[in-house]
Design goal:
Rossmann fold, 8 helices, about 250 residues, alpha/beta
Length: about 250
C-alpha cells in the first residue's frame, strides 16, 4: 500500500522514529480488546500514528451511558454494534490503516485464535474476568500486553513483555475479586479514560519501536491531584501465570 508520508511528517521528525520507525508502525499488528472508554482514545491514536493493521474486540452495543467517554460514538449510533461502528469511523479517519472488527465476546474457545494474528495486545476492557483471560493467553503465547484501567478520578497502567519474563497482571492482582466488578458499578470521568487510553497507545507504539516501556512497573494517575506515581512490580513466586512460563 502506498502511503502519504506527509501525514506522518511531524512524528517522522522525532529522532527515535524517523522513516524507518514509521515503516515499523505501518507493518505492525495491534489488537485492542475493548472499544469503549479506554478503547476510544487507544484506537484513535493508533490509527493516527499509522499502525498498519489494527484489530478491535467488542461484543457490546452503544448505550446512552457510554457517551460521556466513548467518543467514537454519537447518539445516532445508539443500539448499534460498537465493533462495526468503530471500524467504519477509524478506517474513514485514516485510509492507510486496515481495521478488523471482532464482535464476539472473548472466551477460552476463541481468544487464542484471535490473538495469534497480532504483535501487541492492549487490554482496554472493564472487568477482571476478561483481564485475567487476556493476561493468561498473551503470556502463554509470548505477546506483549498493555493493561489499563480507570475508576472515577484514578487510572492505572502497566506493560507486560512475556519474552523478557516480566511480571504479569496476576502479579498485581493475584486474587479474583469477591464480586464481579465492571465499569457499570462505579463512576468514570471521560477525561480520565482519555489520559490512560492515550498512554496505552503510547506504550504500544514504544513496544513496536523497541523504546523504554513500563515493564515491571505500574503507573498510577490521580486526576484530582494531577499526580503520577510509578511503582515497581515484583514477580510473585506463586503466580500461576508468569512463573510457569517457558
Amino acid at each position: 500500500m502506498k502511503r502519504n508520508l506527509e501525514r506522518y511528517q511531524r512524528q517522522i521528525l522525532i529522532k527515535e522514529i524517523k522513516e524507518i520507525g514509521q515503516q515499523k508502525l505501518f507493518n505492525a499488528k495491534v489488537l485492542v480488546c475493548g472499544a469503549g472508554g479506554l478503547g476510544s482514545p487507544v484506537l484513535t491514536y493508533l490509527v493516527a500514528a499509522g499502525i498498519g493493521n489494527i484489530g478491535l474486540c467488542d461484543f457490546d452495543i452503544v448505550s446512552p451511558s457510554n457517551l460521556n467517554r466513548q467518543f467514537l460514538y454519537t447518539p445516532l449510533d445508539l443500539g448499534k454494534q460498537k465493533a462495526y461502528i468503530a471500524k467504519a469511523k477509524l478506517e474513514e479517519f485514516n485510509y492507510d490503516v486496515k481495521v478488523t472488527a471482532h464482535s464476539d465476546r472473548l472466551t477460552e474457545d476463541n481468544v487464542t485464535e484471535i490473538f495469534k494474528e497480532y504483535d501487541v495486545i492492549i487490554d482496554a476492557v472493564d472487568n477482571f474476568e476478561s483481564r485475567y483471560l487476556i493476561n493468561m493467553v498473551a503470556y502463554k503465547n509470548s505477546i506483549p500486553l498493555v493493561c489499563g484501567a480507570v475508576c472515577e478520578f484514578e487510572g492505572i497502567l502497566t506493560t507486560i513483555v512475556p519474552k523478557e519474563n516480566t511480571s504479569c497482571f496476576r502479579c498485581v492482582y493475584p486474587l479474583n475479586p469477591s464480586v464481579q466488578l465492571t465499569s457499570k458499578m462505579f463512576g468514570i470521568l471521560g477525561a480520565i479514560a482519555g489520559v490512560i487510553g492515550s498512554i496505552q497507545a503510547l506504550e504500544a507504539i514504544k513496544l513496536i519501536l523497541n523504546l523504554h516501556c513500563l515493564k515491571n512497573k505500574i503507573l498510577i494517575f490521580n486526576g484530582l491531584e494531577n499526580t503520577y506515581r510509578v511503582k515497581h512490580i515484583t514477580k510473585r513466586e506463586d503466580c500461576t501465570i508468569c512463573m510457569h512460563h517457558c
